[in-house]
Design a protein that fits this description.
The N and C termini lie far apart (133 Å). Helix 13 crosses helix 14. The chain has 21 helices and nine strands.
């Protein structure tokens, strides 16, 4: 009975003023039961985070208990993060805020809402935004914001521009303010239109798209206006009929004639590259005109443009120098060496620079011929990460695979009947244009070898179409490759691998060595007949 009476006395009635929707206020009574202190259950002090988390009543209290060992005892955020299972970065950030702001950092701060909305902008600015988009749909929000800043000295955010375009006023324009550039009859007015749009804040690209003219013309008009003012927009007086300068000298014409006689398959690009090699610089278009004249003069067939090819992503495209090599063998069937069999061209290409690392003209295409070219490339440039070929047996022989494994080279193979995946195929097409006609006229093996050596040098030092867009001035395979090497091995290591793969022969179970149709047997101390 006494216990019940004490509990009843512990009940405290609190009065709070609570605003209501009515004009006045009314008092609302709430009963809050406060338990006497002696009724609370005593708990033992603990450092177990799971128990502490269970005892906390408020999120701010829980957050403080999480930070307390870091703030009071110097425990690191990493150690406390492991105990509590929270982010180390979050604990470090909260501890830093607590040191700066104290207990106030534990309480949630609401961010003030952005004051800028679509409705907060002046009506004239909102109307300008929708009118610009209606006049030219290609406008980007950033460009519209720039134009607004030039007109009103206030720049709205891109998000605000997007909101106004979505739910702003209706456009006041029903069409274009300016016709396309070519439809303006007066020359001064055409150029004046560009200046008007420029002063309004339009970018060169937007003006070019809107007026349906080139960016070069827009830049030219703006340069004239900047240099001479509005006087630079007048039509320039017409001069005497322009006589095109003779770009090709007699030496250039003579060199083109010589190139066409020696290699009729050359195109304008390869002629330009060959002329640059000897110090004659002509454009590709000029080289094309000279080629057409020479073909007509000598009665050579005119090259027709092939059908456009579908662009395909190369599966073995190198990301850096000496990453991937490609290898293949090409047949040269037209020659005057006195035998009907073709001559074989074995080449190794570096995929990134398109440089020909090693090449050989051979009467045979055995695995030993391929290994000779491979070791020439390995000795000069080190070993790549990967080597790519087709399904030829020379590239997949046991001896070749042993070399790849010994030098850490990964062997990859292109898909069947997909020769375009091998960079050497396009390389061989360049060989056909540059050297096939010369190979066909060669009458000795020495002459054939000399043509091959000269072709390999010319190919590596002449500009390559794959490097036309480089901005570092390196346009030839040799310039792009530079002095880059792969994994370099000592010559003694390469010689030991070469000896093991080429000169070591296996004996059969009876101890005989087979050479063609003969079997040989040898043993120390065995007397010869």
């Amino acid at each position: 009975m006494a216990m019940a009476q004490r509990e009843k006395q512990a009940e405290v009635t609190l009065e709070r003023h609570k605003p209501t929707k009515k004009s006045g206020e009314r008092k609302q009574r709430e009963k809050v039961v406060v338990m006497p202190a002696r009724k609370r259950k005593l708990r033992e002090r603990t450092h177990d985070w799971q128990e502490i988390q269970h005892y906390t009543l408020w999120p701010e209290q829980e957050q403080y208990e999480r930070l307390r060992p870091v703030i009071l005892f110097g425990e690191t955020a990493a150690e406390r993060a492991k105990e509590t299972g929270t982010s180390e970065r979050t604990l470090y950030h909260q501890a830093r805020l607590f040191e700066q702001e104290g207990m106030a950092s534990l309480f949630h701060k609401e961010r003030a809402p952005s004051t800028e909305t679509g409705r907060s902008l002046p009506l004239e600015m909102r109307q300008l935004i929708v009118d610009l988009k209606a006049e030219h749909p290609g406008f980007r929000p950033h460009e519209i914001a720039t134009i607004c800043f030039l007109h009103f000295e206030r720049r709205p955010s891109d998000h605000t521009v997007k909101r106004i375009l979505a739910d702003g006023p209706k456009p006041s324009l029903s069409g274009r303010r300016y016709p396309p550039y070519a439809q303006i009859a007066d020359g001064y007015e055409r150029r004046h239109t560009i200046v008007d749009l420029h002063t309004q804040g339009w970018s060169v690209k937007t003006m070019s798209d809107y007026l349906q003219t080139s960016r070069a013309r827009v830049y030219e008009v703006l340069k004239r206006w900047a240099a001479e003012g509005y006087a630079g927009l007048d039509d320039r007086p017409s001069s005497a009929p322009h006589q095109p300068a003779r770009k090709a000298s007699m030496d250039a014409i003579s060199e083109v004639r010589k190139l066409v006689r020696e290699s009729p398959e050359l195109g304008a690009y390869r002629v330009r590259a060959a002329l640059e090699q000897i110090g004659i610089h002509l454009s590709q278009a000029t080289c094309g005109r000279l080629l057409a004249l020479n073909r007509k003069l000598y009665g050579l067939p005119t090259k027709s443009a092939g059908a456009p090819r579908e662009h395909k992503e190369m599966p073995f495209k190198a990301r850096f120098r000496q990453e991937i090599w490609s290898v293949d063998i090409r047949y040269i069937e037209e020659h005057n060496l006195g035998f009907p069999e073709p001559v074989y061209l074995i080449s190794i290409l570096e995929n990134y620079s398109r440089a020909c690392l090693a090449s050989k003209i051979s009467a045979t295409q055995t695995g030993w011929d391929y290994l000779e070219v491979l070791f020439e490339a390995l000795s000069a440039f080190g070993a790549p990460s990967m080597i790519v070929s087709d399904g030829g047996g020379q590239f997949r022989s046991n001896q070749a695979m042993d070399v790849y494994t010994a030098l850490g080279m990964r062997k990859e193979q292109i898909e069947k009947r997909q020769a375009w995946q091998n960079y050497v195929e396009s390389h061989f097409n360049t060989v056909r244009k540059m050297a096939d006609a010369k190979f066909a006229r060669a009458r000795s093996w020495e002459e054939m070898t000399a043509i091959h050596q000269q072709w390999m040098y010319d190919y590596n030092v002449q500009r390559h179409f794959a490097h036309e867009k480089r901005e570092d001035g390196c346009h030839s395979p040799a310039a792009v490759l530079g002095g880059a090497t792969g994994t370099v091995y000592p010559e003694s290591v390469l010689s030991r691998i070469l000896f093991a793969t080429r000169y070591v022969r296996r004996l059969d179970k009876h101890g005989f060595l087979r050479y063609q149709d003969w079997k040989f047997y040898g043993e120390r101390g065995l007397l010869s007949a």
